[in-house]
Amino acid sequence: MSLLRTARLPALKLLQCVHEQHLLLASITAFNQSTYRRPGQPKDNTPPWKKINFNFSKGLQGIKKNFTLLKKELCDPWVGPEGKSLHEHMLEQNRVVWEFRGPESLQDWIVSSDEVIGGQSKVYLKLGKNNTCFLYGTLCSTPPKDGETRYSGYCALRSKQAVKSFDRKKHHDWTSFNTLHLRIRGDGRPWMVSIATETFYSHQADDQYNYFLYTRGGPYWQDVKIPFSKFFLSYRGRVQDNQYPIALDKINTIGFTLGDKADGPFQLEIDFIGVCKDYAHTEDIAYELYKRNPEV
């Protein structure tokens, strides 16, 4: 399938393509949580205690880091919400959450591909010439010849889980905003934007909110604004019948997935990822909510 035809795929067909990749990712998660060993993979007989890396200097650095974060957590509320003055917090209309201005900014991101299940896709992350996040690689949809894997061909970029002191989870609070703002430059391929939120039950750990990101290609940057109401809830790649608005006070991570079945090189350049307040947008959720037992 040519790249031009792929970029013009209907949303439903594109969702089906990415759905297969989400099923693939779900199977990977299940494999990692069990003792399953893929065909051809050597058995790891290393004792558990040998996998622990004891380092005294790193331990001291960790203690210093955690107590610095703890001090910040205790002092910031006295200044105002999230360490900002109340006046600044109430008038804030735009916020840059992730900005790429140095090599240290790439440490908050993780790249993955179907290599973990024997695929042939390659993905790399580096700092671009203009101090931007430059994601590039090669997509290959040929499944591994192990007799089990049916689908392959995906590359993904995801932010790491933010943590507070002593490795406690830290959530992004975007309740003052209603739109996701991206400044990107792509090659014409369609991507999937995924937002993961904190869930109450363990069986909801794979819930994600997704929406499509269509890049134009070419040398020009594009500013993309996606209302949070447009994101739809999915579980392991399956769109759910019951749709709910995103819990904007419990945002964990954001990610970008490519799985359009167009084998070949790709690239995506990201300048910043932020949120903004669009006063012209007033809807809470863009999808109809059906009652299973309607009132008579």
TrEMBL record:
Q: Where is the NADH:ubiquinone oxidoreductase intermediate-associated protein domain?
A: 98-270
The molecular function terms in GO held by this entry are: unfolded protein binding
Q: Which Pfam families match?
A: CIA30
One of its GO biological process terms is: mitochondrial respiratory chain complex I assembly
Question: Which subcellular locations apply to this protein?
Answer: Mitochondrion
The family this protein is said to belong to: Belongs to the CIA30 family.
Please report the name of this protein according to its UniProt entry. Complex I intermediate-associated protein 30, mitochondrial
Lineage per the UniProt record: Eukaryota, Metazoa, Chordata, Craniata, Vertebrata
